Amino acid sequence: MDRAATVTAFQAVEGLEEIVVPKKNGTSEFIVTADDGLKWKPSDGADQLSVTMEAATQALRHVPGLSGTAIREWPTSLLVEPLNWWFRHGSGEARALYNADGEVLSFTKRAEAGIQRPTRMLEAVEDALGEKGIATDDLYYDKVRVGLDQVSFAVITHEKTEEVKAGDVFDAGIMVFGSPTGEAHVEVSPYLNRVFCTNGMISPVAIGRYSHRGSDGASIYDWTRDMTVQAWDAIDNEIDAVRSLTGIPVDGNVHAVMADLFDRHHVPARQREAVLEALVEESDGTMFGVSQSFNRVANDVEDVSGLRHLLMVSGDVAHQTERCTACMRALN
C-alpha cells in the first residue's frame, strides 16, 4: 500500500469531532428521513448530522424500556418519539462522535483525552525514520486497519533488508497501534515484513506504550517520534531473533509446540484451525515455520486487537530463550 492509500484509509477517523450536549432541558432533535433513516440536530440552530445505523442503534438502546425487539422490528417513525423524549429529558449528557462528512459514528464512544489523529502519528514515524537516514520517499505501508478505538499501520523500508534463511528476505519497519479516541494504549514497536508474502511480526520486548490518560504531557507526535527512534535501534536484535528460529528443529514435536502456544496466548478456537492450516504451508521443520504460520493468518485479520494478538504471538516465539529439550515447548 502506498502513502496516499494509507492516508485515505485514515480519513474515516481523521476528521473526528466530539459534541456534548445536556439532555435535561436540551433542544436536541432526531428527525426521520425519507428512507426511514435518522438525522440528529444537537441543538436549536445546529446543522443536522446523519446518523449511521450502528450509532442509531446505540442511541435507541439508551432509551429506558425500549426492547431489543422494538429496536429491530419497529419502523424508525415509531421509535423517534421516545428517542427524542429521552434525549431531551433524561439525565446526564448526550455525547456523539461525528466525522468530517457530518456522520454521527457513535453515541457511546468518548474522547475525553482529545481526538488523536492517525496521520499525525504516521508523520512522526516518517520523520523519525528520516532522522535515522532512511529515504522517506521510498517507504511502503502495510497492516492498515481503521476503527474508532484503534488503528494500526506499519511503515516499512527496502533500505534495511535481511535474508534470514536462503531465499527468505525481510524488510525492516515500524508498527504502530494507535487509538483515535484514547480508549486504548498507543504502541510503537520494531516490525519485520516478510517480502514474498507480506507476513509481518512485531517485538513483544522492544515496545513502547503511551496512555492518553495520565501521560506526562508529551504530545502524541513527540512521543511517537521518540519511540520510533528507539524501536529502529532495536531492529538488528529482532532480525537476529528471527534468524535464530531457523536453527531450532521441531520435527516430531510440532503438535505439542502449537498446543502450548495456543494455550499460552489464549488463541481463539476459530483462529487455531487457520493457524494449523497455515503451518502446512509454512512448515520447514523449525520454529521459524511455526512463527510464520501465525503471521500468515494475521494478514487476513481485519480487527485491530486480533491482528495485534497474532503478531505478538509470532514475536514471542522469537524471544523464547528457554525450551524443553525433549518437546521444544517454551519454559519462559
SSE blueprint:
Elements: H1 3-14, E1 17-22, E2 29-32, E3 38-41, E4 49-51, H2 53-61, H3 68-73, H4 76-89, E5 93-98, E6 103-106, H5 118-131, E7 140-146, E8 151-165, E9 168-178, E10 186-194, E11 200-202, E12 208-210, H6 220-233, H7 235-245, H8 254-264, H9 269-282, H10 287-298, H11 304-318
Parallel strand pairs: 4-6
Antiparallel strand pairs: 1-5, 2-3, 3-4, 5-6, 7-8, 8-9, 9-10, 10-11, 10-12
Helix pairs in contact: 5-6, 7-10, 9-10, 10-11
Description:
The protein is an alpha+beta fold. Among the domains are: 17-106, no CATH class; 118-234. The chain has 11 helices and 12 strands. The chain has helices at 3-14, 53-61, 68-73, 76-89, 118-131, 220-233, 235-245, 254-264, 269-282, 287-298, 304-318, and strands at residues 17-22, 29-32, 38-41, 49-51, 93-98, 103-106, 140-146, 151-165, 168-178, 186-194, 200-202, 208-210. The strands form 2 sheets. A 6-stranded mixed β-sheet has the order 1-5-6-4-3-2. Strands 7, 8, 9, 10, 11 and 12 form a 6-stranded antiparallel β-sheet that branches. α7 (235-245) packs across α10 (287-298). The longest helix has 15 residues, at 304-318. The chain is elongated, with a radius of gyration of 24 Å.
Query: What's the helix count?
Result: 11
Distance between the termini: 37 Å
The helical percent reads 25-40%
Spatial arrangement of strands, main beta sheet = 1-5-6-4-3-2
Overall, the morphology is: elongated
Structural class: alpha+beta
The overall pLDDT, averaged over residues, is: 87
Low-confidence stretches: none
